[in-house]
Amino acid sequence: MTTLLHPPSLEIPLEPARPPRRSRTKRLLGYAALIVAAAAILLPFYWMLMSSLKANNDVYTIPVRWLPDPVVWKNYVDIWHKSDMTTWLKNTLVLSVAVTFLQVVTGSFAAYGFAKVRFPGRNVLFLAYIGTIAVPWQSYMIPQFILFSKLHLSDTLWSIVALQAFGAFGVFLMKQFYETIPDELLDAARIDGMSEYGIWRRIMLPLSVPAIASLSLLTFVTTWNDYLGPLIYLRSHSLWTVQIGLKTFVNSYNAEYSLIMTGSVLSVLPIAVIFLLGQRYFVEGIATTGLKG
Amino acid sequence: MTSMPMVRRGRGRLVLRNTAVGWSFLLPNFAGFAVLTLVPVALLFYYAFTSWNVFGGAEWTGLDNFRQLVHDHSFRTALTNTVYYTVFHIPLTLVAALGLALLLNRKLRGVAFFRTVAFFPYITSIVALAQVWNMLFSPSYGPINQFLRAIGIAHPPGWTTSADWSMPAVILVGTWREAGYYMLLFLAGLQTIPTQLYEAAKVDGANAWQRLLAVTLPGLRPTTFFVVVMLTIGSFKVFDLILVMTAGGPGQSTLVVSQYIYQKGFIENQFGYASAISIVLFAICFVITVVQFLINRRGSEA
């Protein structure tokens, strides 16, 4: 298993140096493949950004114009007037932060129980947790909706918090990490008279900062991007998140191509920034939880 | 055994104490998890045998919902479409992800940058992506069809406006979006293959292709297994991508099982019937996962 403490270098050379000529052709081929793949992945993002800066009539042209001319910055002003973008962004931010906080706290707390305290039934219970990761949410969204309605959670922001905050994923990720921390360390603390809660708070939490970073970023992004939860639970316009708002905006202004792209850029931008700042933690979080599944 | 301060009176008390401490750690998460996930899953198996719509409560009707399901043409269409999506999405994504991983596993400049790029679609919201792709796929003015015309295809497909081409369009976007995520898993898997194996194969005179077949692919077996399981479940439950890109259309050409559940449950308020469809989805995912585990176990014993 990959540990988060010592992430593997992802660029271990598989082949030592070869005779120069063949390796040069191979390298060139490699670069060509890289460039083609990168272009294929990035092109839709480029189109999004570029169209968001065009006049509406310039979005579809024959042939395609790859640079906006003139550059219409006004789109980025208009979008705030024509839509409730401010409300949407605010709701989404509140939800993402609340869910992330709860998921990290309850997830790491439970993970300590699973990883470092031994008691009967622990492993069976953990299997039940992991098992539900493989159960598609789509298959129990109906009874969950009925239950939430009876608890008077539907059409409140709490419904989304409840939906996302207690996932098994966080427990799983944190447990994987905690198991790499040697028991001897905890035993020493126990001998010094520290309680299990103290150990979690004073030893485990500080040591697991990289894992917490991974979990926080992944949870934040998942909540930010969630479309189905808000679609089902948030009926009042004042509660809408950016995904649901954007989709409605698209439906009502379906010919305003450049504004639609402006809204899309705004909905993606925070995630892009977070991702670029913390991409290391994304990669490690994925590698840790992916491998042992 | 983690050595708690030993109490002389014996193991019984220690076990009891550990159990109490252990549960106290689990409780905040487990309480939420049990109420919000386990209870709905259990309720599902009750609702599916009831007729329940907006009028009145759940009334036990036995297997009626399932009988209705057998003769439901829309359900059959949804199931066929889901299988269609799955059958193409899994191999395409698998090959793309593995190809990208092998490419990135070499010593080239810019590999770190590319890894970032490849993963980006996966963490971008599906609503924004669907809008961009729908515009790119636009039949008359979209860049994709302009490109196809430029290379000599006089009548390029209508993509999301055509019943025949909407599913391929959705599959293409699904693969484009997820390949980077599975690439990361493959990259991590590649690190676990010992370098000595490659050196030994080279000493034996194996060329690059033979090394791929004899060392890399067998070494990636556990990763591949995990990726295939994740991809299968992911494909069968595909929903938001389709909902925002085509909303199941044109006609029912991209209607999938998850969306049919949504439609019956939340639009038509037939909770009982929608639960029955949910059980089918649940069962499909469950059976396929179990079968894959069995095949994997037999394969690794051989």
Topology, element by element:
The complex is a heterodimer of chains A (293) and B (302).
Chain A: H1 20-52, H2 75-82, H3 85-116, H4 122-133, H5 141-150, H6 157-165, H7 168-178, H8 183-191, H9 196-207, H10 209-225, H11 228-233, H12 242-252, H13 257-292
Helix pairs in contact in A: 1-13, 2-13, 3-6, 3-7, 3-10, 3-12, 7-10, 10-13, 12-13
Chain B: H1 11-47, E1 50-51, E2 59-60, H2 64-70, H3 73-104, H4 111-119, H5 126-136, H6 143-150, H7 166-191, H8 195-203, H9 208-219, H10 221-236, H11 240-245, H12 257-267, H13 271-301
Antiparallel strand pairs in B: 1-2
Helix pairs in contact in B: 3-7, 3-10, 4-7, 7-10, 10-13, 12-13
General description of the model:
The complex is a heterodimer of chains A (about 290) and B (about 300). In chain A, about 70% of the residues lie in helices and about 0% in strands. Chain A is built from 13 helices and no strands. Chain A has helices at about 20-50, 75-80, 85-115, 120-135, 140-150, 155-165, 170-180, 185-190, 195-205, 210-225, 230-235, 240-250, 255-290. In chain A, helix 2 packs across helix 13 and helix 3 (about 85-115) packs parallel to helix 6. The radius of gyration of chain A is 24 Å and the shape is globular. Chain B is mostly helical. Chain B has a two-stranded antiparallel sheet.
Work out the helicity level of chain B: over 70%
H/I helix tally of chain B: 13
**Unreliable sequence segments of chain B:** 1-7
Global geometry of chain A: globular
In this structure, how is the largest beta sheet of chain B organized?
Answer: 2 strands, antiparallel
What fraction strand of chain A?
A: under 5%
**Spatial extent as radius of gyration of chain A:** 24 Å
